[in-house]
Amino acid sequence: PARALAAMAAQEPASLEALNAVIRASEPLVPGATQAVLGEGPLGAAIAFVGEQPGDQEDLQGRPFVGPAGQLLARALREAGIDRDRSYLTNAVKHFKFEMRGKRRLHQSPTAGEVAHYRWWLDRELAFVAPRLVVALGATAVLALSGRQIPITRARGPAAFAGKPFDGFITVHPSYLLRLPDAARPEAYEAFVGDLRRAALLAA
Ligand code: URA
């Protein structure tokens, strides 16, 4: 099986399932993750969302955006009139990276090198899904999609990712909203929902 997997990885995977099998069988770049967290949603979804990397809950459950940031995203999607089940959700990096703080596993941001390593997968994954619009949630997703470090505050809104066969849209990551002081959160959340509404119109 190891040799069969190596052979599969060396070739272009012929389907999203074949690609996912390769990802699932791959070791995390940084040891420690429970499992690879694959993208979720239908092929042909009009809109795809790219986050950073799975968090603690995603790592344990094996599904993207099921932890606190994912729940906030789900709420914002509902308010923006976007059906999560008809959208595609994935991450730039497929394994959770963390440091232990007591008994807690604290998220660590992936390095640019780690993002580059996972980029080959993300490109193929999105080619199979073939969405009309890809929404980058935060700076890591922007780096994965554009190859460039771009400040979100400047780039927020419709975007073109060079060489990509879909339209782009840049907004903040939902975990950024969770880190804001309480007083700043409602306004930032409304702006996020506003971005999602705009994105929905562009994907329609
Ligand atoms: N944050 C992400 O970027 N992705 C997830 O799946 C969960 C939290």
Looking at this protein, list some descriptive labels.
globular, five-stranded mixed sheet, single chain, alpha/beta, 204 residues, Uracil-DNA Glycosylase, subunit E, two-stranded antiparallel ribbon, binds uracil, 15% strand
In short:
This protein has helices spanning 2-10, 16-25, 56-61, 68-79, 112-129, 139-146, 152-155, 174-179, 185-203; strands at residues 47-51, 88-91, 98-101, 104-107, 133-137, 157-159, 167-171. It is α/β, with parallel strands linked by helices. It has one domain: Uracil-DNA Glycosylase, subunit E.
Domains, number: 1
CATH topology: the name is: Uracil-DNA Glycosylase, subunit E
CATH class: Alpha Beta
H/E element order:
HHEHHEEEHEHHEEHH
Overall 3D form:
globular
Approximate helicity band: 40-55%
Strand order of the largest sheet: 2-1-5-7-6
The fraction of residues in strands falls at: 5-15%
Number of helical elements: 9
